[in-house]
Specification:
By secondary structure, this protein is an alpha/beta fold. The protein has three helices and five strands. Strands 1-5-3-2-4 form a five-stranded mixed β-sheet. The longest helix is centred in the middle third of the chain and has 10 residues. It is globular, with a radius of gyration of 13 Å.
Length: 95
């Protein structure tokens, strides 16, 4: 099977939330489509000004490996990849 990518950004957030931060989800990579297709990957799309806070939040999660920041690039097609959107009020942006 070919890789699965789900990008949850709409037309507006695709242009405003241009930085993607994420990595391999160690929990979900062990079952379902993640296991069958090379792992499960998750990225959070954010505004450039929020990238440091979001990267710190993703890096602090113990269920993620290989955390990377992508700007102007799209995640490499592999496994099951989901892109979530960081809106105001998200836990990663709280003080």
């Amino acid at each position: 099977m070919k890789p699965i990518t789900i990008d949850n950004r709409d037309k507006v957030s695709h242009h405003t939330h241009t930085v993607l931060i994420g990595g391999k989800d160690n929990f979900l990579s062990n079952w379902g489509t993640g296991k069958e297709h090379g792992g499960s990957w998750a990225y959070w799309a954010c505004r450039p000004e929020d990238a440091d806070a979001v990267e710190s939040w993703v890096s602090s999660r113990n269920d993620f490996d290989k955390v990377k920041r992508l700007s102007g690039k799209y995640p490499q097609k592999r496994g099951h990849t989901t892109v979530y959107v960081i809106y105001d009020g998200h836990v990663s942006l709280l003080p």
